[in-house]
Protein 1
Amino acid sequence: MYTQAMDTMGKDGDARKPVRSADEMVQEERFEARIAAGDFVEPKDWMPEHYRKTLVRQISQHAHSEIVGMLPEGNWITRAPTLKRKAILLAKVQDEGGHGLYLYSAAETLGTSRDQMLDALHTGKAKYSSIFNYPTLTWADVGVIGWLVDGAAIMNQVPICRCSYGPYARAMIRICREESFHQRQGYESLLTMMEKGTDAQRSMVQDAVNRWWWPSIMMFGPPDDQSPNSAQSMRWGIKRVSNDELRQRFIDASVEQAKLLGVTLPDPDLKWNAERQHHDFGKIDWDEFWRVVGGNGPCNRERLAARVQAWEDGAWVREAALAYARKQEPHAQAA
Ligand code: FAQ
């Protein structure tokens, strides 16, 4: 019982800092100095445990978002209106799968295995972006996901190319280039429907914009004053720009793009504020956001079930790959 007084390591939720050895303090000072100098941190470098955990949390959530994010659009591959649109959509959905794989690899360099991360996803312990729990009801949803969802993703992810953790930053450079193509193809698909389509197609686009606008601006996460991870992540250079600032930049950019497209954004309070040099916007329904993040959005159960099913269906591939690797071992040893 008395040994409890010796528990100096600081438990979860305990604000006390764990006691550190002189060696650790020197390591931590060196680490902070490298962050301050803008150097990259690499997998074998010493890093504080909390920095490692924060990165695994964010990168694995990001990876899960990419692979769950394949589902809403994947739903339309067999129903794409032309061969050209089908080829574009196939490539886009495959790209999202590739992003998930780069990101799982980046997280693995921090000492967490892909199996551990996937287990957390499949058992509902891990988060993934709220946006992918909404349904894709019409073909216009596919264009709107490209325009708004990929657009929001780029706005959030370009600053991560300067993240202090090298493997994450490098993965983000390629991801952002591909996301940029995704955003353009979505916008171009909507522009075609708006300029050359029928009245029914134009109202289909407007309906999709009405349904995706608010969830898209929620993607940036809770307001800064309710974002428990932001302050430390910004100090460590994991996040470079705050949730609210990115949201504002995205709204300002989208207003102009909506005008060119000829659609209305579904927010009567959206207007230019000359003093702030930004657009003011209406109240975001944070209750809806937390409901979706908490597992009770329109498609949460369906999305998770689809990922679990894919994992189970792939069991034979994993078994075959392992059996093949075992068969190669004697050859490798002999060589
Ligand atoms: N959904 O303290 P903060 C894409 C959670 S990829 C669900 O502000 P943080 C590509 C947050 O995790 C889209 N949960 O957290 C694509 C935290 O919970 P925790 C994904 C959310 O980490 C396009 C809690 O709320 N992008 O779209 C969300 O500092 C089209 C408190 O929040 C990334 O992951 C949310 N929207 O900031 C694919 C980018 N927001 O972990 C297919 C990298 C917040 O403490 C088709 N991630 N939460 O239990 C980030 O930049 C950050 O992690 C944020 C959140 C900004 C998402």
Protein 2
Amino acid sequence: MSEVRVHRVQPAWKKNALIDNDTYLRWYGESVKNPDKFWGKHGKRIDWFKPYTKVKNTSFEGKVSIKWFEDGLTNVSYNCIDRHLKKRGNQTAIIWEGDNPYDDKKITYNELYEHVCRLANVMKKHGVKKGDRVTIYMPMIPEAAYAMLACTRIGAIHSIVFGGFSPDALAGRIVDCESTFVITADEGLRGGKSIPLKENTDKAIDIAAKHHVMVKDVLVVRRTGGKIGWAPGRDHWYHDEVRSVKPECKPEKMKAEDPLFILYTSGSTGKPKGVLHTTGGYLVYASMTHQYVFDYHDGDIYWCTADVGWVTGHSYIVYGPLANGATTLMFEGVPNYPSASRFWDVVDKHKVNIFYTAPTAIRALMGAGDEHVKKTSRKSLRVLGSVGEPINPEAWEWYYNVVGDKKVPIVDTWWQTETGGILITPLPGATDLKPGSATRPFFGVKPELVDNEGNVLDGAADGNLCITDSWPGQMRTVYGDHERFIQTYFATYKGKYFTGDGCRRDADGYYWITGRVDDVINVSGHRMGTAEVESALVSHDKVSEAAVVGYPHDIKGQGIYSYVTLMSGIEATEDLRKELVAHVRKEIGAIASPDKIQFAPGLPKTRSGKIMRRILRKIAEDDFGALGDTSTLADPAVVDDLVANRQNKR
Ligand code: WTA
């Protein structure tokens, strides 16, 4: 392994930092020694209608029960809006930067209050009640944030579905949580191209109806003015509806453990699961991590480039920043439109201080050339962040040297949809940085590495990453399937939360995430279950069997490599390959498009019929010298054919 460079905390990073290294060590020690005391204190960072007297009540054993601040009453939209009005009613809450660089607007906290209250009243008018599930399928426009906050105001549970998902994927999510109210837009706009959100919604509603879930109301935001279908009685224009209701709506008093949102995410097996987060602990954790990880100070302009369709958008565009009274920038577009300078142009235009993005974007922009960065100033930047997948040291150094001009710390933040907020991360004024390492645990987080047999590994080691005790932002269950929650996260290593990630700890106690150890692949920072892509492929009538694995991809981190066995008599053609890619896009969405399809007369299976993915991964990586023992295969000869026809010859 090449020598690791260490970037020490610079004096300027420490100067006004909220947390220095001594404070980190002290707080961390306290947080793991006495979580009740630590979180009892920090839980007060949000406002409670009724203060909690109990702090932590959690168990990773048996039925697994996770409760934080359970007897407290609060409301998320109250904390993200109302409590700021006195001090910062006229401060910008959201800066919206449109797909088109000439399209932007600012929304103050006062305005946010009115938008959210009106929308909450519209939902009430249509009968949406506490505990009801509302599906949000939106572009990156302020109304997406209004919709989230309006749900929390009345105690409805939102389920946001990423706008890039197909009608089938949207339908599956509507059906799973039996959601009868949908908020969408006529069309989305990204990189100058429109996305037919309403048309997709219409199709999804028809599919859901076949599964006996009847969507009763669709609220439609006019974004592009494009032509759309309309079901009178069911469909309502957002702009019409919000006009006719009152601009105030009292926030519902919610129990800390009342559900806040569901977010579907991919796992190793089966359909995406509905990760359920609850109210109090989630908000405490999202706001606290947002403040300390990004060293957020009052008045900072903060920009996270994620989409609200992913957990990063939930915790670090909307809930964390707004709970802290921040100015959060919401970007509708893409990094390379109209040019590869777009991110840095936006940084200069709005004087962004804190910038948080994904390694895949960094790598793509690195490939576009330094001149796109260098012609911009970026003087306002104080903290840079990375999330979603391991960042390779080359991309890290480029981000540091070129984007940050060697003056700005990078926080490489490791976390998951399930964790609600950041778990392993540097703190800008405290942590010496090592490119490629997410460094050290956040307060209250107890990582542990175990081998495949579950033996705990001490000191410098390489293993499977578990977390041994609960933190307030942790998911509480899989919506409607608590048994699946237990099996997925707590059964592999008994009594521990298993993350699904591999990880190395070095001699300094720094953590290096090495990627998923399960059948999940991480494509451009988006999680994709190989099982989902396989079932999409097999649903095509010419396909008899499919196996999907990840392989290293320069920009995406991992690409999707599919082995496909066709029905007998079907010819393997280039056209069929295209047809299969289109089919997967239709079933799931563009993010699941296979990068490579290899037609394979047979797949390597054990005598008991289990597909040996290890072999398929090696062939996809073009590393077939190291196939290992193939003697246990039912038919070792299939491997020769797979190697001969591999699609990734170097
Ligand atoms: C990966 C995104 C390395 C990891 C917030 C995890 C990372 C999965 C990092 C969760 C990071 C996320 N370094 N790997 N800084 N951040 N991952 O649920 O494999 O979309 O398990 O949450 O992304 O993806 P998810």
